[in-house]
Amino acid sequence: MEKKLYILSDLPYDYNTLEPYIDEETMKLHHDKHHAAYVNNLNVAIEKFPDLFSTLRLGSGQESVEELIINLNDVPEEIRTAVRNNAGGHINHSLFWQSMAPNSGGEPSGNLAEEINKTFGSFSEFTSKFNDAGVKRFGSGWVWLVLTKDGKLDIVSTPNQDNPIMDGHKPILGNDVWEHAYYLKYKNMRADYLKAWWNVVNWQEVEKRFK
Ligand code: MN
């Protein structure tokens, strides 16, 4: 096969370092089993079409995974759903791990802070609107802070493993509201997980993405 398979990167920190907000067992399962399965299933799907990358004129780097879901209609129908779910899962989780860090949380600074205040009124109005969108996502999905096509901040929610880039938005920050992200510790209390999660948000990384 001409294309190098996608790979699962290690977490940028230890499994237990987001305690007490996200527990070690959840982090292990979430990264080593769930994210690993998305990467593996994506590789299995694209292996069936060895010419896919040259046909779609995609690069050979890991970043080509985004082009797969942006150009989903050009992906062969036989693997389109698998690519949508698993490439999406790979992208979303890669972004998610980088958006968190031990000893983080707090509030953003600089341009992002200004833009959040301008758009949502205040940081606390922003987080409560974000949490609300996360609670209201029926079933499994994600809640996002995005930069829209018009260059404005907005909060959106996507089902399953869909990513805002499928709608032309740039994701700045995303939280996973699948039950596998919180159920071991928070049980059915998704709202509690959403609130606690702000304690592990890596604003330095999020600000970089915003620039
Ligand atoms: Mn997940």
Automatic annotation (TrEMBL):
Protein residues bound to Mn(2+): H30, H93, D176, H180
GO cellular component: cytoplasm
Listed EC numbers: 1.15.1.1
Tagged with keyword Ligase: no
Superkingdom as given in the UniProt entry: Bacteria
Domain Manganese/iron superoxide dismutase N-terminal, first and last residues per copy: 6-101
Keywords: Metal-binding, Oxidoreductase
Keyword Ribonucleoprotein: no
Domain Manganese/iron superoxide dismutase C-terminal positions: 108-209
Transmembrane segment boundaries: none
Catalytic reactions of this protein: 2 superoxide + 2 H(+) = H2O2 + O2
UniProt GO molecular function: metal ion binding; superoxide dismutase activity
Alphabetized InterPro entries for the sequence: Mn/Fe_SOD, Mn/Fe_SOD_BS, Mn/Fe_SOD_C, Mn/Fe_SOD_N, Mn/Fe_SOD_N_sf, SOD_C_sf
Enzyme class (EC, first level): oxidoreductase
Role: Destroys radicals which are normally produced within the cells and which are toxic to biological systems.
Family indicated by similarity: Belongs to the iron/manganese superoxide dismutase family.
Protein name listed in UniProt: Superoxide dismutase
